[in-house]
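Why does this matter for the project? Reviewers at the last site visit asked to see concrete outputs rather than summary tables. In response, this paragraph embeds two records directly. Each consists of the residue sequence and, immediately after it, the corresponding structure tokens. Nothing has been edited or filtered.
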Amino acid sequence: MADFESKTGNVDRERTARSYRAGGRFTRERLQREAPESEEALRAVEHADIVVVQGCFDHVERVLGVLDLPFTTISPDRLDDSPLRPEQLLVVNCPGQVGARALARVTDFVAAGGSLFTTDWALRHVLEPAFPGVLAFNDRPTRDDVVRIEVRSKDNPFLQGVLETGDDPQRWLERSSYPIRILQPERVEVLLASRELGERYGESPVAVLFRHGEGEVFHMISHYYLQRTELRTARHQSTSAALFAEKGIESPALRKMADGLTLGEVEAASSSTRLLANLVARKKLRAQANERSQPR
């Protein structure tokens, strides 16, 4: 893969950062109205609840940042000996190049109840060796591309508010992203997919989930932060205020934050922020429930 600068040179970084800030604020305001239990769980998140393994290509921690969520970052080499607990969410950014000892610890962490979230090249570097025979890279890397995404698992709580009737978000496939081949379909749940992705690169999954022991693994193709979008429709090209009106969010502060941005830009960013917020909130809620069930 080329260096990060050359891969993302066609992105207006400041505009994308503004879209993510607006998407993060939009997500938190929607949760407060639509899922107050999840919003309360997010307010209870502490730095130790989320461990982010740094990557040179992806930066999921920036999405956590726009959601105002605390987290702890570690370098890939520190995953060998950093303490991990089942109540934590472990995020491994692309490319996910870690050592054999770290891979064994990741496997044990998930088996004990931990939650793992990985992106793009971590498919080959983490998931294939740590959880063999479940998922694999299909050896058909993508071009720089943008594809429409669709919900495949409509009743999954992790997708609450991510894609609803009338929504039309897209996902950017950075050059040399890794399409996801499912080797054990009976074990893997496809959360998000893309017909366009399947037609162009042989595999349609965009976001997948599988269980391992007491824990769970989430994986998404391409990079989670620094998404761009194509304004394909008149709806995409309308103002961000139109999106807020669609969802019934009337916030002067949010409108000011997103001033000058299009609906398509904020929609693409908010689909990412909402999915991650759902993952973190449900993990925290389970941890709180487990703590309450322990004998005192």
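We now turn to the second protein, recorded in exactly the same manner.
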Amino acid sequence: MSREAKILIAILIIVVGGLIGLFALANKTTPPPAGDKNAIVRDDSYKPGSGPIQVVEFGDYQCPACGQAYPILKQIEADFNGKITFYFRNFPLTQLHPNANAASNAAEAAGAQGKYWEMHDKLYETQSDWGDLTKNLSAADAEAKWVGYAKDLGLDTDKFKSAVENQQYQSRIDQDVADGNAQGINGTPTIYVNGQKVDNFNYASIRDAINAALAASPSPSPSSSPSASPHS
């Protein structure tokens, strides 16, 4: 074999080896986060309220049933103000709802600018505009609407759009999904009250579960109870 042929073979081996390495690197995926069957919520989960009863929704922004549950849960928050803490955890059903994961990214991107709940509410209140499955809105068209919402909320829209397109907060969503999977969740909305799954998402079922949890909670000791104000 000539010297030139040996050199060409060596170069070919190097090139092929490099291509194999690049292919392996390109296909290397970050291991998904582990789910925790005890993690109904996490320390960094978004939550309004500071009441003793924990109400948790695993939800999907494009899910029609979640859209129906949204005003019910808002009413629950109002009716049990001061008694509950509400948590929302992302559980996009991507096989059914093609824009659900991106919508979760939109909420997370808004949250990074201090407007998580404002975007959460907006996504549900406008679900028929961007998430109606019969309209089959493209991801780009849905994103354009979300950018408009971000502008209305006073967000930095360039930063918001970049975060959504690059899935900057996908790890948070993946952790929510992993924890939901660890619970055995297979549909949305799935609601828990103090760690106990509520069978239905209608108002009465959630209300009754909260009232039962309140009744089971220890009463504050007399020393910690606020003293009555004297009457004039």
